[in-house]
Amino acid sequence: MYTRRHLFHVIFFLTVILLFEISTGGIRLWHFPFEDIEPIQQYGWPLTVVLYLFRLLSVLPLPLCVCHALGLIFFETFPFRSALRGSQLLAPFVTVRIVTRGDYPGLVRNNVERNLKLCLDEGLDKFMIEVVTDKPVALRQHSRVREVVVPRSYKTKSGAMFKARALQYCLEDDVNILNDDEWIVHLDEETLLTPGAIRGILNFIMDGKDPIGQGLITYANEQVINWVTTLADSFRVGADMGMVRFQFRVFRRALFLFKGSFVICQAGVERRVGFDNGVEGSIAEDTYFAMQALTQGYTFGWVEGEMWEKSPFSLWDFLQQRKRWMQGIYLVVHDNRLAFRSRACLALALYSWLTLPLTTSNVILSVLFPIPVGQCIDFICGFVGAVNFYLYIFGAMKSFSLRRLGTIRFVLCVLGAIATIPIVVVCENVAVVWGLFGDKRRFYVVNKAMRPEHVV
Length: 456
Prior knowledge:
This protein is 52% helix and 10% strand. The chain is α/β, with parallel strands linked by helices. Strand 1, helix 5 (105-121) and strand 2 (127-133) form a beta-alpha-beta unit. The protein starts with a helix and ends in a 19-residue tail after the last helix.
């Protein structure tokens, strides 16, 4: 039984798709002037070929958009508060693992204290918070907190770097203290647990269907540091609830995307898959891990609840973050050590991203050089555009509380998310070009120091 909010969202979503289709010619209620154009006669062969190639590239993201749409329509998007489906006494031991370079020790200490308090308040008994760091962060001594400092001299067999190196260090026999049937919850240093996430984690573990899981992260909680990047990250929230959730619930595979935070993994599985994957697996270590696990036949599931993070504090960090993601995924897709069947869908997602400068140029080219491509292609392009546009709207509706903000401020936040689309498109295009021709083996870490004077 769907909630009223979900039904409203579905009707709104279908309306947006319908309006896009009508306006782009996917559904033709009247005659469009471009239908009468003879492109070869008007533009010549070379330009005609380029125009059709660019237009057809817009079809590339169709499988992702279909998964987005099905996930947003058929799975409840505004569920009621989930209940614990078993006794915590029967749950195995859980380690909340946070990996950091140690550049922001105050942030790490504060978040460890908050997450520790929440776990105790929620009645968790068998758990530990483990911080793995390159530099000591001076955590408060506590029986449920463990600080692991990675020695500078430590090297993996394949030469893994950055976060992958630290994650692999935890799995070494003389460092690891977990049994194979215990569980690890991966967080970034700025990630905050919520009561819903804790219940979702326990339910996922006690269900016992999949050894690897992932859940939703939202970015508009508590203090918003940069409104532009926070509203822009509404797309990521929509993508989590759409395609990411759909791929896990229906296919039980990490086909198109896998993040490194709000990840649950059984300890024995993590040790068997590992993070020792050389430089190619060191930039997007989370994605490489997922492809490696997929190759080894492990299944994935969706974890209910949400965790909180902050969006990048500046557009420069926003751009650098996207560039690093693109470069890391590029290295994963082109690593032949992974089975092609495991990275085929990821390759489709990557090349949908890499061709963004070409496909976004259609916005201008379709006005300056209109061409007839057939109603089927027009329908697909309209659908792809509508879904990607709506992900910003839905992400904002999911991130911001109507009850807390009130109707006017809530609507302004949704409109603000839409207004960031041109900024995001520019950043994504710059990230693609810069990432393709730049050094793909650098790991840029965004600034996470909260300074009140930078609040927008």
